[in-house]
Automatic annotation (TrEMBL):
Recorded topology in the membrane: Multi-pass membrane protein
Spans through the membrane: 6-26, 33-54, 66-90, 97-113, 141-162, 198-219, 225-241, 248-266, 278-296
Pfam family, one: BPD_transp_2
InterPro entries (UniProt xref): ABC_transp_permease, LivM-like
Name recorded for this polypeptide: Branched-chain amino acid ABC transporter permease
Keywords noted in UniProt: Cell membrane, Membrane, Transmembrane, Transmembrane helix
PANTHER family, A to Z: HIGH-AFFINITY BRANCHED-CHAIN AMINO ACID TRANSPORT PROTEIN BRAE (PTHR30482:SF10), HIGH-AFFINITY BRANCHED-CHAIN AMINO ACID TRANSPORT SYSTEM PERMEASE (PTHR30482)
Annotated organism of origin: Hoeflea alexandrii
Compartments reported by the entry: Cell membrane
Record flagged with keyword Transmembrane: yes
Amino acid sequence: MELLAYAAFFLTIALTYAIICLGLNVQWGQTGLFNVGIAGFVGLGAYVSAALTTPDAAERIGGFDLPIALGWLAAMAAGGGLALAVGLLTLRMRSDYLAITTFGIAVALQLVFQNTESLTGGAFGMAFIPRPFSGLQGEAFAFNGLNLALTAAVVLACYLLLEHLLRSPWGRALRAVREDEVAAQALGKNPVLLRIQAFALGGAIMALAGAVQAHFIGFIAPGNYLPMMTFQVWAMLIVGGSGNNRGAILGAVLVWAIWALSGALISEVFPADQQARAASLQIVIIGVMLCVILLWRPQGILPEVRSVSRHLGRRNKDIKP
């Protein structure tokens, strides 16, 4: 039973990363927007939801004790609003400006989380975050299993929404802008508006993932949202398959499994006084795996499925030699 409880815990964390990957897939996989500030959007969602749903605390601003669902919605609004502001400022310029800006915002947010003790708890973090099904915390299997089901439902909802958008005219317009902006603009599409919409949607999904993860764990700290998280999520999407939502989910589970197993192996092999330095081997392992995947399947395990308009297919059938 303990093994099943741990498996449910592991899969729940992996699925929160899958939500982040789905958000990144909207930005990069579908639109070609290079976001290197993923940790900032995830952390913003976590802190916004925690501030709104935790009990009142005299030493900290916030603690409105609101329902968890409202915290998740507020996190999405905060993440989408930040992404919208960044998009309005940078997406009219060259793509490298977006990378620089998102990285700077992520670093700035991490410093805010760490130094505004009256708002975020500072370096000590925020505890007492309400957890779904908290009445079952004494029963590890039931608690982790129900949270796994809830997180899986969130992943499924995001997946179905994004798959619907992917097959809609809006999704086709995104891919058209990604492939050839000039041609898309000649057909009457607005590349800047489409990029801003995609970037805002991806930011909202990433913030939702941060909120879901925070409420499952029950504690957050600034050290959870370092650039290493951004590296992990990019590795997940590249391994799984950029442009494919199923690939994003698969990559998240696979890379998180390797990350967790390598961490457990390091703790068993190396003495306690050397484990902190040996932990860097996890990054090496993920990097090697990334190189192998890029050599073996450059488009990822589940590459993007190229779609052709049904009208074009019907036209080709009508034209006979």
